[in-house]
Design goal:
mainly alpha, Ribonucleotide Reductase, subunit A, 2 strands
């Protein structure tokens, strides 16, 4: 009688018998298990305890498991605190110094990121959308299109560097994983807003700053300078003004929650840059050079008439008022960005007020 395999194929009984005998011999050939590995540990008996907020990632940093080295010389995927296995082939991790990626807030930001998730499909009150004048709807859709490109750029540059970050600094790797998921959620929400109210996607951005971010290959810190200190600080102003100009509860929800997510990204970015400047000789000088280049690129992109016009129309409530009060509001937005940027540079120890590129300096009068 023939046996049947799970797939339904018929297996001759003789063949099945041979296979069964072979399997039994294979089992008998397994050597007696050794449990020598059970006595191997860098520090046994460690017990972590939850607090009123639960068992958070930062609470795991006890004993040797909380020792974050200035340089992680291991080039494997060994978790921090685990014993190395001799003979494991190395991997090409380029970011192995703490100053290249660290921020003390990373563990807490990871916890916040996973606890404050929101679901665009069901959490956004889409039923509150109502038809808007064509000019305003087109302008909102254009801003959504622009911000989608910002989020795409953030995903791409984070993932480019993330696999080059060593596991000695796992808190940063885990936080950045939540940041990429935040960006994916932003793309989803923005695309849905553009398509849910009778509009559609707008014109592609010139992408001057996007390209600058994506082509930054001098290290993760360089990318953070462009992604968060320059572009990110401007994006926060953009989101805040979109929130104050929201036309319905759906937009208020989207802009408010994007601000919440973006604030986490900026907190990490700013804190990392502060750590790099204070823990690595020459970091401030390098950052000044990067900013002199980045400011020119940022100023050039701010001259793009598309985003400028769209924001003016939204903030003015139409084309006519967009030419006056709306444009004035937009210029105040950019001026707020430049002032925030200069204050951050002072805090970082790389003051720019006397060296600010002329294309950005012009906005300080607004």
């Amino acid at each position: 009688m023939a046996d049947k395999e799970p797939s339904g194929a018929v297996v001759p009984a003789a063949v099945a018998g041979v296979e069964a005998a072979g399997a039994e011999e294979a089992v008998q050939a397994v050597p007696e298990p050794s449990y020598e590995w059970m006595g191997l540990s860098n520090q046994w008996g460690v017990r972590v305890k939850p607090d009123e907020h639960g068992l958070r990632l930062s609470a795991l940093n006890v004993g040797i498991y909380g020792e974050v080295p200035e340089y992680w010389d291991d080039q494997t995927r060994r978790p921090r605190g685990a014993l190395p296995r001799p003979g494991t082939p190395p991997l090409p991790y380029n970011l192995r110094a703490k100053h290249q990626l660290w921020a003390d807030c990373a563990a807490d930001l990871y916890e916040e990121g996973i606890q404050r998730r929101w679901i665009p499909a069901t959490d956004v009150p889409w039923s509150t959308l109502e038809p808007l004048p064509d000019a305003i709807e087109r302008s909102v859709c254009q801003v959504c299109t622009e911000l989608m490109q910002y989020a795409n750029t953030e995903i791409e540059i984070i993932t480019y560097w993330q696999d080059q970050m060593s596991y000695g600094y796992y808190e940063v790797k885990q936080f950045l994983a939540t940041a990429t998921f935040d960006c994916a959620r932003h793309i989803e929400a923005l695309r849905k807003r553009a398509l849910a109210n009778g509009g559609g996607l707008g014109l592609e951005s010139k992408g001057i700053v996007n390209r600058m971010i994506l082509e930054s290959r001098g290290g993760w810190t360089e990318s953070v300078v462009y992604l968060y200190l320059l572009r990110g600080t401007f994006a926060m102003q953009l989101l805040r003004h979109m929130l104050t100009s929201a036309h319905n509860d759906a937009e208020s929800y989207i802009w408010g929650h994007m601000i919440q997510d973006h604030a986490r990204h900026l907190t990490y970015g700013y804190d990392h840059l502060k750590y790099a400047v204070t823990h690595h000789d020459g970091a401030a000088a390098v950052m000044r050079t990067l900013l002199s280049i980045g400011e020119a690129m940022m100023g050039s992109e701010l001259n793009d008439a598309v985003l400028r016009s769209a924001m003016a129309i939204i903030q003015g409530g139409g084309v006519d008022a967009g030419r006056t009060v709306g444009m004035q509001s937009y210029l105040h937005l950019v001026g707020g960005f430049v002032r925030d940027y200069l204050a951050l540079c002072d805090w970082l120890g790389v003051p720019r007020a006397d060296r600010l590129h002329a294309s950005l300096k012009q906005y300080l009068e607004y």
